[in-house]
Amino acid sequence: MNISAFFLESRQKSISSWVVALWMLILILFFSGFCLTVMGGSVKGWQAVWNYREVFWKGWWLTVLISSLALLLSLIIGLGTALARRSGVLPLRALAILYIEAVRGTPFLVQILLLYYVVANAIGLENRMVAGVVILSLFSGAYLAEIIRSGIESIPSSQWESARAIGLSNLQIYRFVIAPQALRQILPPLAGQFASLIKDSSLLSIIGISEFTLAAQQVNSSTYRTLESYFPLALGYLALTLPISLLAKWLEQKLHYET
Q: Are 57 and 210 in contact (CB under 8 A)?
């Protein structure tokens, strides 16, 4: 492929991404109009909910904070667990497998109740915010571990052998050979897991964390306006997850190369 053809293809992909984003925005606006006009929304109802805008705003920012902290911590947990899963030390590998299977095999709601009301209570952890971030990180970390592990194992064995042949250490192999290639493979599922992490944070409302979902529930309880209370909730989560999907798509195109 010559240089002009390469840039033409890159430009076409970029235009395609913008077209997709535009259509998504049109669909969101259409659905918003449908909800506001057809499904029973009223000016009086919106005015009642508008009086609680500070509750929504604080809940939304708390969700952003929780999700951001949990994202960073779950990345560390996921990377460490993925490496432990591939370790030659049998007890370490067994613990990693046990952790992954236990988390992936039980509902997140059950994990929240067990870890907060049993484990956190037993160790004296009373801060709901800290407990929520840790619980969410442990849950997401197990899925990230499998995503990272699959990305590492997707690299052909010839790459490992070639790197060892030129004298690279294991750390250098992971840093300069495996990580750049694995990142291209795991970007789509990684973005999906990050979006799921944000949405899963809504379940932390059951332990009394005043995040976005609990804020909407409180507004609904005060105003008895269900549509007007929960519609901003949907838009608020969409405002967090949609940019992640678009950013991942852009990075995927930037890091793509022809084999």
A: no
